Amino acid sequence: MGRFFSDTVEIALRNIYYQMWTGQGQQAFQSLEHASEAGDGDASCLLARCYCGSQYVWRGHHFPENDRMASQLLHRSVEQGSAIGVMTALRSGELSPALQNKMSFGSLQEAFDLVLDMARAGEPFCQYIIGNAYFWWDFLRIQKKSRQDFSSQDAFQSYLRENISKCEEWFWKSFRNGMYLSGINLNYYYQNGNENLILPHPEKAADLNRIGAEYGYPNYQSDYGAELWTAERYDESFRWLKEAAGHGEVEACFYLGMAYEYGHGVEANAAKAAECYTIGLDSKGYQIGCSNRLGALYFLGSGVPQDYAKAFQLLRWAYDRVPTNNWGAYYLGACYAYGYGTQQDYTLARKFLEMVNWNSRDAFYLLGYLYARGLGGPEDIPKGVEYLQKAGDHADARKELKNYKKTFFGGKWVRR
Fold first, then answer.
1. How far is residue 351 from each of residues 123, 293, 334, 339, measured CA to CA in Å?
2. Could you tell me if 283 and 254 are in contact, meaning their C-beta atoms sit under 8 angstroms apart?
3. Secondary structure element (H or E) that encloses residue 295, with its range
4. More confidently predicted of 233 and 410
5. Residue 396 and residue 369: Cα distance in Å, rounded?
6. Residues 159, 179, 4, CA angle at the centre, nearest 5°?
7. One-letter-per-residue 3-state SS of 165-232
8. Which residues pair with 406 in a beta bridge?
9. In contact, 43 and 203? CB cutoff 8 Å
10. C-alpha closest to that of 273 among 245, 315, 308, 307
11. Three-state SS letters, 314-360
12. Looking at residue 408, what is its pLDDT?
């Protein structure tokens, strides 16, 4: 038997949260399943959290997401006599009066006090639960308090403020001891305050990514690496991104790929960049970026064999998800113009090339060519020449310009 819970639960807490980078998450999940079936209510509670998705557990564990199963397990946890199960069910909105009547505790306060005792003794998950009880106002139901119990609105607000503010200490203790989720709530608390009772203090959130990275949380290492990248501190950025990716944090792969692609903080290596972008296709926040950049590498044959079909598939997928994102516009325009990886379509080629709003000689050449020759739309030689001239010393553009001249009278561009 562990210090606070069964051996199974304590090992699972370590591998799922406190040392989440061990790669033992799936084994912990399976152990919790067996323990839950055997009547361990704490195991049922923790297993329920595993089913709740990335809001509650690290995506790197690749746990299945199933809200119905999570609800069933929380109910089971309460009925099996778990104090953390009662508190988690309360926080999740699952603790109906009917379910509360099935718990083995005389009151919510009794269950809360048991969790509080473990929190005071240093148990990180319990510290997180206590922090949440104050942060989300669950203490009102636990203490059976409402506005009617106070002589004035000011007295009630003072009571609320006193209790809500307790979350900060508990979240910090939990964050330091192994619960990365507490850092997320601390960030929200500092950035937003709490209603009109606690004022925001965004300056206190400034170092949370660095602190979380130093504690060893892969998701914080990724976020801190991205933060350092934005600040152009590339050597430090690469170090944290590489460590995060090495621990299985796919969200780090976008910026890590760019580090390899551009040689920022590490020697340029297009093959490594492609490898990172490929892994990053499974990320939550950087799928579009990884798809675009990997598509460009396949288009160019940089770090991977040139493959226009793959390039088009990746670039078009990214555009279809976010049509306002024009990052891959040139490559898509070129694919449609030349029939690379897709059926040739000059109309679509024009559409995408016109989305290019940066200085791209290749895009200007193609767009000028299409306008001047009336491909994909009405012929417009003056506009075509304008784009060809913007292409500067682009060899094909200079060659194409030789096909046009200005009329003697009026100075209008026409075909020779």
1. 58, 20, 11, 15
2. yes
3. helix 287-300
4. 233
5. 10
6. 85
7. CHHHHHHHHHHHHCCHHHHHHHHHHHHHCECCCECCCHHHHCCHHHHHHHHCCHHHHHHHHHHHHHCC
8. 413
9. no
10. 245
11. HHHHHHHHCCCCCCCHHHHHHHHHHCCCCCCCHHHHHHHHCCCCCCC
12. 82
Query: What is the spatial distance between Cα 100 and Cα 162, in angstroms, rounded to a whole number?
Result: 27
Residue 2 has a pLDDT of: 81
Instruction: Give pLDDT, residue 164.
Output: 98
In the CATH hierarchy, which top-level class contains the domain 7-179? mainly alpha
Condensed to tens digits (0 to 9), the pLDDT of residues 190-228 reads 999 998 899 999 999 999 999 999 999 999 999 999 999
Domain regions of the chain by residue span: 7-179
pLDDT at 1 over 80: no
Q: Tokens 């026409």 sit at which residue?
A: 414
User: Which contacts (CB < 8 Å, 24+ apart) does range 61-66 have?
Assistant: 61/16, 61/20, 61/25, 61/26, 61/29, 62/25, 62/26, 63/25, 63/29
The pTM assigned to this predicted structure is 0.92
Between CA 322 and CA 291 the distance in angstroms is 12
Q: Residues 382, 412: contact at Cβ < 8 Å?
A: yes
pLDDT digits (tens, 9 = 90+) for 286-318: 999 999 999 999 999 999 999 999 999 999 999
Give the H/E segment covering residue 415: strand 413-415
Of 35, 54, 55, the residue nearest 44 (C-alpha): 35
Residue type, 15: N
71-99: buried (b, 16+ CB within 10 Å) or exposed (e) per residue? bebbbbbbebbbbbbbbbbbbeebbeeeb
Helix (H) or strand (E) holding 303: none
Residue 406 sits at φ, ψ, to 5 deg, of -90, 140
Per-residue model confidence (pLDDT) at position 410: 74
Q: What is the mean pLDDT of the chain?
A: 97
* Cα–Cα distance measured from residue 311 to residue 258, given in angstroms and rounded to the nearest whole number: 17
Kindly state the average pLDDT of the residues 24-36.
98
The pLDDT tens digits for 121-153 are 999 999 999 999 999 999 999 999 999 999 999
The structure tokens 């399976």 sit at 30
